[in-house]
Specification:
Elements lengths: L4 E5 L3 H13 L3 E5 L2 H10 L4 E5 L1 E2 L2 E2 H11 L4 E5 L4 H9 L4 E4 L4 H18 L10 E4 L2 E4 L4 E3 L5 E2 L3 H11 L6 E2 H8 L7 H20 L9 E4 L3 E4 L4 E3 L3
Parallel strand pairs: 1-2, 1-3, 3-6, 6-7
Antiparallel strand pairs: 4-5, 8-9, 8-15, 9-10, 10-11, 12-14, 13-14
């Protein structure tokens, strides 16, 4: 198993050194950086599994850097800042940060958050819709990714909303894999940023109910999109994929 490679981005030499050393002592490859250009150099020249990015980065702004990275990169980003008010955190989440840690922080907390984000990133990689696939077939149904059309076993086209289609794509990429509501919500952003796990969970339950109503012969006793007790949901059918989009 590859050792995770982390970028520690901070313009303060002492803070950068402390974080880098601590992460190395705990089994990571930690690479110090002090600017956006240094980040891009590492991203261009090698694998990066997570970026710890200071918000107040000298003349540069970590939130703005995060936003630019999100336009091109899926690498997990944890923002680190002395600014801990809710609106500062929200600004980070709204540009795509995976987590936000306020300074000063306990190094053990930093380590736990890094491990948690890496774990989610590893799992959520399978949640990304496979754009190389042109057609999905499951239980007599067909989803044409090029045309964005769903056809029933009887040959009728079924209209799905944008969110219902996005949920179906996640399920098609993960047949027989139990998914938590949080994992699904993160991949879909069904509630908008910052509305919390409880709101996200309710939104997922509603969305699942709507999709069941369109693809299940009996939505009250679903055979395709089943509830996995204590976890979330599982797409309990084989999925065949073919072609490239």
């Amino acid at each position: 198993m590859a050792i995770p490679r982390l970028l520690v981005v901070d313009d303060d030499v002492d803070t950068r050194g402390m974080m880098t050393q601590y992460l190395r002592q705990n089994g990571f490859i930690a690479l110090p950086c002090d600017s956006e250009s240094a980040i891009m150099e590492h991203l261009t020249n090698g694998r990066v599994d997570l970026i710890l990015l200071d918000v107040m980065l000298g003349d540069e702004n970590g939130v703005e850097i995060c936003a630019r990275l999100r336009d091109e990169q899926d690498v997990p980003i944890i923002l680190v800042s002395a600014l801990s008010a809710d609106h500062h955190r929200m600004a980070g989440y709204q540009v795509g940060a995976d987590d936000y840690i306020a300074k000063p922080f306990n190094p053990d907390l930093l380590l736990a958050r890094v491990r948690a984000v890496l774990s989610r990133a590893k799992r959520s990689a399978s949640l990304v819709y496979r754009r190389s696939v042109s057609t999905f077939r499951f239980a007599g149904w067909t989803y044409d990714a090029k045309l964005d059309e769903v056809t029933s076993p009887q040959g009728f086209q079924v209209a799905l909303s944008r969110k219902e289609t996005a949920l179906l794509k996640v399920l098609l990429a993960n047949p027989h894999i139990p998914l938590t509501r949080e994992e699904i919500a993160t991949s879909l952003d069904v509630t908008g940023e910052g509305q919390g796990a409880e709101a996200s969970g309710r939104a997922i339950d509603v969305l699942v109910g709507r999709l069941r109503g369109k693809i299940e012969s009996d939505p009250k006793q679903p055979e395709l999109l089943r509830t996995e007790r204590g976890i979330g949901y599982v797409f309990a059918t084989d999925v065949d994929v073919e072609g490239s989009a």
